[in-house]
Structure formats: structure tokens, C-alpha cells
Amino acid sequence: MALKDSAFNVDNAITREGHRGMSFENAFGGILSFMRRTYTKDLSGVDLAITGIPFDQAVTNRPGSRFGPRAIREASTLQPCDPPFGWDINRKHFDVVDYGDLAFDYANVAAFPERLTDHIRVILREGVGTLSFGGDHYITFPILRAYAEKYGPMALVHFDAHSDTWPDDDMTRIDHGTMFYKAVKEGLILPEKSVQIGIRTQNDYDAGVHVIDAPKVHGQTPSATAAQVKEIVGNHPVYLTFDIDCLDPAFAPGTGTPVWGGLSSAQAAAILRDIRGINMVGGDVVEVSPQYDVSGATAVAGAHAAMELMCLYCWNLRAQKVS
Questions:
Q1: pTM higher than 0.85, yes or no?
Q2: Domain spanning 30-322 has what CATH number?
């Protein structure tokens, strides 16, 4: 049945009153905020702020994830009209906004980490959580600095093909393969409360972090993996980082360092839904490089992963309000 013209709103990202509500817009038109959330720097009454970090100058192989935030937002327009599948919450119940992208001097790479940490600090001071879109995976390190200032050392839940714990004692080096080694060394994360899911590249040093590698994930049910994650992190404040190359290249080819043998989209979705209840206080989706994927499937996967992280964060808010 055709909807009346009044059922459609135009450019909800700038015309919506308040921060809540579903959006009924043509996916092929309109302002590209994430899930058509309101674009604003006003964090009054906001639960969660979406922010893009278009930085990819720490990559080992192929650059291009600076275009990730824009691609994830565009792909998210394919799903704003429907309540999230598998969740008993929807966007009518929570105040989520798109805070826009971090502005930084691309030619002053050395200044980038503190610029990003301060960007996140500003949001956290308002009592608002963050969901960041990379950019390469290095961005998680400066973000963790801001979170550790507020919450103390964090539990890290890390979906990835790579451990990113290769030893590197030069804390000024900006590298997307060593930042979790540095995060442990700097006391930003507690390795005994942290877990990596989907790893399938060789690194003889795990920094003390628990590892559920890809073969183990494949050999058990998603619910078993989720139960292990929940046991490891307990009720400690969790930062969840989702590198899109956690997924097999069949599901997400548009990334800088794809590795075969990864998780399927179905496995990742089931694990993310089954870990509901962890004390997630922030998260990110990183390493989407859309130019390596003419189908757009990687950005779609990134947008879906981001929605699951949004639901994880907001599910806890609802549980707190009910209790």
C-alpha cells in the first residue's frame, strides 16, 4: 500500500524535532547522517553521539579508510525505517545524534592523537557515550585514553583478523598494528578483562589479552563465543572495537588488509546480540575502505555492525531505567 506524502519526512537529520524517532526517507536522497539521526553539536539530553574519524595515515598496506565514515553513513540509509532485528528496543526510546566528523590537520600527523583524545573528552564530559567510525584502527588508542581518564583501565572487546599487539616501545609512533600493545603498557586496558575475537594472523605476543581465534569461533556456536566474552569482561566498563576485517573477505572485501578464514556476517551479528548486557560504555567500527569494494557490501556490513553496537549501548540504558 502506498504511503501518503505526509508519512515521509524530508532530511530528518536537520529537520527532526528532538533526537528520537524512526525515519521514513528515500534511501537515495537526503542528508547522510548515520541512520538519519539529527546532526548536532548540542549534547543536552543525548545518550550516544556518533562521530566520524576520517584518519588513515597509520596503515600498513592499503590506505582509504578515511572514506569509511562517509560510506558507513550512506549505507545506513538502507535500514532506518525498520526496528533493529533481534532486539527488543528501537530508536523511539533513546537519544542518539550524529555529532559529525573530527576536524584535524591532515599534514600534522603528530598532533592527531591528542586532537582525537580531546574530541572524545569533550563528549564524555557531557555524560554521553561515543560510537566512532574510522578511519584506520589506530584511532582506538587515542579514544581509549579519553575513556580511561573517565572510567579507569578498560575491558576491551576486540573483533579483528589481527591482534594489533605487535611490540613497539616508541609511544610516539602512529601505527595501526601496535596500539593495543601500547594500550596495555600505558594502563589503558586490563588484559585479563579483555578479549579478541576472530584473530587469524600469527603474532607470538598477545600482551596477556584473551584470544578466541577464528578457528575456535568456527568450531563452536556464536552463543558459546558470546558466553566466553561475557565471562571474561564481567561487569567491568567495556570499550568494544569492531575492525571490519574480522569478517571474511567474502563478506567485507573493502578493507586495507583482508585475511581469509574470517567470521561470516551471521556469526558476527549473533555474537554481538548475544553479548547484550556487557557494560559497554563506548565503541567503534574501523577499517572500512569503500574504494576496494565496488559492490558496497563492506560499507553495508559496517553500518550493520554499527547499528548492533548502538543497540548494545542503548539496551543497557533501557535495562538501567527499568531497574
A1: yes
A2: 3.40.800.10
